[in-house]
Amino acid sequence: MQSAAVDLPDSPDETLTEAVVDLVLRGMWRGRPESEHRPLVDAGLAMVKGPMVLPTERARTAASRILRISPGSAQEEQITTAYEAFLPVNRKIREVCTAWQCRPDGTANDHSDSVYDAGVRESLEDVHEAIQPVLRRLERVLEGSGRYLTALEEALDRFDDGAVQWLASPLCDSYHTVWMRLHQELLLVLGISRADDEAREEELVTRSRG
After folding, report:
1. What is the pTM of this model?
2. I want to staple 67 with a disulfide (CB 3.0 to 4.6 A). Which of 33, 94, 105, 188 is the partner?
3. DSSP 32-44
4. Is residue 174 exposed (0-12), middle (13-18) or buried (19+ Cβ within 10 Å)?
């Protein structure tokens, strides 16, 4: 993580820097005490909307500069390799979450068909097996990224214990929520826009299908 002095208040402390990055990676905070978000709001880095705390554009700019690694470095090249291995699996997790929420005919999945749900769970297992070597490779070159595999496994365990919200709910650290944070960090670390990300994913998925 680079110096926190970029686009943050004078003499920012480490807690504020970590909070900015966490808020931007999560996209929102919900249910946090005011003592946690007030410093960010006062600094123009967050705004409160009802029960949610959202990052401002200033916060997103700050987080992108804090997380961005040196362009052209060996580390960037190694992380890019992991990122490109991540993208085809990223397509698959979206398909799994869609299948869990909706039947193939577009109707909501009421989870009354245990055979259908078991098939979705098998697809999720394929995703989990595919992402593990990617994350282990990433952990060697991106400090702190090991937390993502731990969080994904915790979410998967809760899901298998019957707490179905731990697959895709945005209101907890569900499998999909953790996955989205990982994706966002990769984009900020590499300085990649969403548009370029989507184009690269489509290219890699198409290539993988021959």
Report:
1. 0.91
2. 188
3. --HHHHHHHHHTT
4. buried
SS3 30: strand
* Cβ within 8 Å of residue 85, ≥6 positions away: 133, 134, 137
Q: What residues does 46 pair with on adjacent strands?
A: 55
Closest CA to 38 of 16, 59, 58: 16
For 163, counting Cβ atoms within 10 Å of its Cβ (0-12 exposed, 13-18 middle, 19+ buried), the class is: middle
Average pLDDT along the chain, 210 residues, taken 10 residues at a time: 49 80 95 90 94 95 95 97 97 96 93 94 97 97 96 97 94 96 98 97 90
* 31 class by beta-carbon count within 10 Å (0-12 exposed, 13-18 middle, 19+ buried): exposed
| Half-sphere exposure for 139 (CA within 13 Å, toward CB) | 11
In eight-state DSSP terms, residue 102 is B
